[in-house]
Write a structure and sequence with these properties.
318 residues, single chain, 10 helices, globular, two-stranded parallel ribbon, mainly alpha
């Protein structure tokens, strides 16, 4: 991956305290544009998103990842009141980060398709966003298997007994990229890094799934015979509701700003608590190679994604 340049700044800025949600490891609704089978909410009324200082977030992420020295006001992640709260935060917020990454990735794919090939810098951004998606798979799925089976999976079952990631509306624009369908420009020698990132995504996805669901049967697969469900506007609404996602006329800059806020909260969490606060419970043969490499690099991946997103908040620079 080629080096990235941080947004210009004149002085180092210390990391401030937790400011996401109403309390540490609290949640915020995500506002996304309508896509696929997910229509806008509230008759397309304008939806307000929280403010974001992209330059400051990028500096803070660099400090938290160890890429820059910490200022005197650097604060660690707040104490964990309950691990159920922490892992629920990770499950919901990690997915919200993923939705924003998918949206920005989909925009780049559409741009590349319109031009017949990616423009300068697009492949680098696609590679970075893909690595960030891998990082969010690890982050969302970092809970012990017992917590997943006793807390997260039962709540998804209560939402719908066939609850499925295939209902995710924002995945539609990136499905071809991550499911191995042919994109002519992906065979370009310049796309080698992106192809490697896609391979890492497959390995990470399969490893996290194997650790959390050893049986290999998703809720959808378990209930398919009794409750056959196809993706629809209704399943899109159920999925959005579960992950606190609203739909409305928001710009790419607003999506990027929301992504930055969440990347900051994730980085604070990881800096204070690590990826596995309660240790790992996977088998050694499941977790190796590119998956382990992604795990080791997760702190560096977040600032890289933030730098690209910050350019959209400030205004696209081509």
């Amino acid at each position: 991956m080629s080096a990235l340049t941080s947004p210009p700044r004149t002085t180092a800025q210390p990391v401030a305290a937790w400011d996401f949600g109403d309390f540490p490891y609290g949640l915020e609704p995500l506002v996304m544009p309508p896509v696929g089978q997910a229509p806008a909410d509230a008759e397309h009324q304008p939806l307000t998103v929280p403010p974001c200082d992209p330059e400051r977030v990028c500096v803070e992420l660099s400090v938290l990842s160890g890429q820059e020295p910490a200022g005197p006001a650097l604060l660690a992640a707040p104490p964990i009141a309950a691990y159920d709260q922490l892992f629920w935060f990770r499950w919901i917020t990690g997915h919200q980060v993923t939705f924003a990454l998918w949206h920005l990735t989909g925009r780049l794919i559409a741009e590349a398709s319109a031009h017949g090939a990616p423009q300068p810098g697009v492949l680098e951004r696609l590679e970075t966003y893909t690595h960030a998606y891998c990082a969010m798979l690890l982050y969302s799925g970092s809970c012990p298997r017992g917590v997943y089976q006793s807390l997260i999976r039962p709540v998804m079952f209560l939402q719908h007994r066939a609850f499925s990631g295939t209902w995710a509306p924002d995945f539609a624009p990136v499905r071809a990229l991550y499911r191995g369908r042919p994109l002519p420009w992906l065979n370009d020698e310049r796309a080698a890094g992106l192809r490697a990132a896609i391979d890492t995504h497959r390995a990470v996805h399969d490893s996290v799934a194997a650790r959390l669901v050893p049986s290999g049967h998703s809720l959808l697969q378990q209930t398919m015979a009794q409750t056959p469900v196809r993706p629809s506007e209704r399943t899109a609404a159920l999925y959005d509701n579960f992950f606190m996602t609203l739909r409305g006329p928001v710009s790419d800059a607003a999506v990027a700003a929301q992504l930055l806020r969440r990347l900051r909260a994730v980085a604070l969490d990881l800096a204070g608590n690590g990826l596995y606060p309660l240790g790992r419970d996977d088998d050694a043969e499941v977790w190796h190679g590119s998956v382990a490499a992604c795990e080791r690099r997760i702190g560096a991946i977040l600032p890289e994604a933030a730098r690209h997103a910050a350019r959209l908040v400030d205004g696209p620079k081509r």
